[in-house]
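Mods, move this if it's the wrong board.
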Amino acid sequence: MPQSIAWPARLKDPLMKSRTMGFALFLVLSAVLFWAPLKLLVSLSLNSDTCSHVIVIPLISAGLIIAERKRIFARVRYSPIAGAVLLAAGILGLSLARVFSRSLSASDALCVVAASVVVIWLGGFTYFYGLQAARAGSFALLFLFLMVPVPEFLLARIILALRQGSAAALSMLYSLLQVPFQREGLVFSLPGISISIAPECSGIRSSISLFITGLLAGHFFLRSAWRRVLLMALILPVAVLKNAIRVATISLLSAYVDPGFLTGRFHHQGGIVFAIISVALLVPLLCLLQWTERRAARKDSSLEPLPPNTRVA
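Not the wrong board. Structure tokens:
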């Protein structure tokens, strides 16, 4: 028979159950109150390449809390003041979005509203479980901000950076492979074809997925903060290199095998192949950071002073 989830004893007492029921009711009430923007977020996630991850972020966050429940809920208490401050901040954000709705684009207004809703959820969690639980679960809670769509002005800059980086990496790949080409900005001319790294070819969707994967990998497999930051800093070059490999593969197949590769299924549905390549590029970097972390831990343990009256052979 399948075993039931082993909940901590703390989660089985009546007071904890009342907290959880209260927080669940709070979430249901907030979903009803903010149904319109939440429904818009779901629709955006289902129809936009840059927001396809939004719908799964709350599920991942809930899964993280369940996976780390013993540590997060080791000590809980009501924190009405801290919870009220966060609730007030969220309500203020909603008010500002309404006041400046005419000067904001629809997507930017949705960003402000989504961020405000997340802050309100954090306020509810802090009220029912306390500041200590919120600190212990800070990664899972702050992870919810990934459901906030990237503002248009920032998204445009990110896409441009990915396109420019992909073009530079593509030039190096062509040179290494000794492929004859001419480049004018983001446009490449190969024998018989010309390709342009358009916004649709920037790899933004896979880059966001890789960013989320890197966040989770760093949280679970690395302990030091600076190594986690370094892993995230390496996401951009890995994403750029992966996208350059994708463009190089499709363009070379089109130039030397069949021009149909430019518009074929491999171009539009072959993303999983290159997603595997990006993970394959990221895993050795993660393993290297883990190795340096273990080595540093062994070095620190060897430098610890011996207990008094310890004899060294």
